[in-house]
Amino acid sequence: MDLTDKKLRKEMGRTCACFNLRRAARLVTQRFDRVLRESGLKATQLPILMAAYQQEDIRLTRMAGILGMERTTLTRNLALMEKRDMLSVEEGRDRRERRINITPKGAKLLHGALPFWKKAQSEIVDAVGPEKWDAMLSGLHEVARKL
């Protein structure tokens, strides 16, 4: 493969799954961060709180799998959120296991963020169009399932 080939470089940028998915994810995250700012939460914190809210006493490994995150990245995020009293991280049955629970403060922040989340979500769906959004979401779920 010759990266000096302009046609190839252009094609890679246009079609590369990693480049295009990460670019879209960064732009969506930026939009959510702007809208969520008033809630006191960041776009990266919202799914973590939601996972802890939906599944009480969730194991760190399970949460990482649900969120598609590396355990080390999730651990760093959890430490910051634990310092802000959004979550509690407790030792499990064995010392290697960690169990995560949302705190009352975290639940309050999550509930307060919902109107902002709805606003950001509808901005994204409206920009793409509901039919395209549904098709894209279905495709993203399939990619996640297969990988």
Could you give the order of strands across the largest sheet? 1-3-2
- Helix % is 55-70%
Number of helices, where a helix is a run of at least 4 consecutive DSSP H or I residues:
7
In this structure, how is the largest beta sheet organized?
3 strands, antiparallel
- Give the strand content: 5-15%
CA radius of gyration is: 18 Å
Structural class of the helix and strand makeup? mainly alpha
**General shape:** globular
Name the average pLDDT.
92
Q: Could you state the order of secondary-structure elements as H and E?
A: HHHEHHEEHH
End-to-end gap: 26 Å
Low-confidence stretches: none
Number of strands: 3
Overall description:
- With 147 residues, the chain is mainly alpha-helical.
- 69% of the residues lie in helices and 8% in strands.
- The chain has 7 helices and 3 strands.
- The chain has a 3-stranded antiparallel beta sheet.
- α2 (17-36) crosses α6 (104-128) and α3 (46-54) crosses α6 (104-128).
- The longest helix is centred in the last third of the chain and has 25 residues, at 104-128.
- The radius of gyration is 18 Å and the shape is globular.
- The model has no long low-confidence stretch (mean pLDDT 92).
